[in-house]
Amino acid sequence: MAIRVLGALAALVSAGVHLYLWFDGVKDQGTVGRLFVVNVVAGVVIAALVVAWRHWIPLFLLAGLGAATFGAFLISVSGSLFGIHTSWSWYAWLAAIAEILAIVVAVTAAAAEGWFGSLGAHSVRRRTE
Questions:
Q1: How far is CA 116 from CA 49, 101, 104, 108, 125, in A?
Q2: Domain of life here (predicted)?
Q3: Domain ranges in the chain?
Q4: In the chain, what are the helix, strand and coil shares in percent, each to the nearest 5?
Q5: Which residues contact 3 (CB under 8 A, 6 or more apart)?
Q6: How far apart are CA 50 and CA 44, in angstroms?
Q7: pLDDT, tens digit, for every residue of 2-40?
């Protein structure tokens, strides 16, 4: 359970950075501003799901949040995302670390809980009576 809490904290850090940036002026940047709000809400919801629901779906969502958010940032650093170009700064490093941690934690937790493979701890077994 401790690893799931770490994953939830990573999602909350990412959400917190995006909320900070939204208040810092990203809210006025059209599509990107709206996507930052989506990221904040998704981060909070996924963090709650990861801790409350011991299933593979929240871990999948956690990995997806980390990958999608970090991927979008890399696009905006190397080129432009919806016309927005950004650079590495303290908040970018903090969010990047949180998003990479979210991916690593999701995969590690899924493996530790046996969600990979048909012989895992949570594999479906047919009940016969």
A1: 19, 19, 15, 10, 15
A2: Bacteria
A3: 2-112
A4: 70, 0, 25
A5: 105, 108, 109, 112
A6: 10
A7: 999 999 999 999 999 999 999 998 888 888 889 999 999
The tokens for 64 are 């997806």
Please state, in angstroms and rounded to a whole number, the distance separating the CA atoms of residues 13 and 7: 10
Amino acid at 40: V
